Here is the input.
Amino acid sequence: MPVFHTKTIESILEPVAQQVSRLVIIHEEGEAGHEMPDLERPVFAVSKAVTNLVKVGREMSTSTDDLILKQDMPQALNKVDEAARLLVEAAKLSKIDPLSKPARMKLIEGSRWILQGTSNVLLVFDESEVRKIVQDCKKTLDYLSVAEVVENMEDLVQFVRDLSPILSRVTVEVCKRTEDLTHQIHREVLNRCVEQVKTLAPILICSMKIFIQILSQDGKGVEEAAENRNYLCGRMSEELNEIIRVLQLTTYDEDEWD
Amino acid sequence: DSSEMVRQARILAQSTAELIQAIRGEAEA
Here is the structure.
């Protein structure tokens, strides 16, 4: 099973994770007593990258309406910041003594923290992006709940006008998300749900139209028409709720599938 | 914005990997 639950996060962290584990192996193999190269330039590049990431992250947590992001992002950024400080200290120490053991320890620790910190930053950000899609799914559920009170063509037209843009946004966003997921089962479930929602939407509208037509004529069979409409509405809501559930799963939720 | 966050995280990860490569380069030489 993949460790990272999106391809984006995987492509960012996997190469550095490999490097960090190799560094740890070298260290565990006894350091070989080699001298450390001059690390001033590469450490400066890392520090600069940390400064830029922290800047973007702080701006994001300041401007967002997402309270969880606002709360979690600064902590994640602090970890990256601390990691950069460790690396700067390590570079200074190793410049004075290229065989310095504390310098080597700080380098390993700093690199690990960069990896963990960047991972946390990306996860906090990713969860926030998922919450945006979930919010749209919930909005769609709210619109669907109105279906049962639509009793004339004018209201049906308005209903379609309200539902269509949000439904189309949800399907596009979920499809985009699905493509980015590394977890095969999550991908399959989301794809299936989106297809179901797309299929059911026009059938639901059609059932609402039939209900309205019967209601405006002799009313014969109106109960069955309402039942059919409610069934379709319920099916669409089930699919949307399943989308919400699976969107919030990560690869760490494997037990769910056992 | 969101894509900028991903871009900056990628730059940081790359520069960290390059730093470690520099250290490893000496160790493995």
Observations:
- Chain A has a mean pLDDT of 91.
- Chain A touches chain B through 41 residues (CB under 8 Å).
- Residues 101-144 of chain A form the longest helix (44 residues).
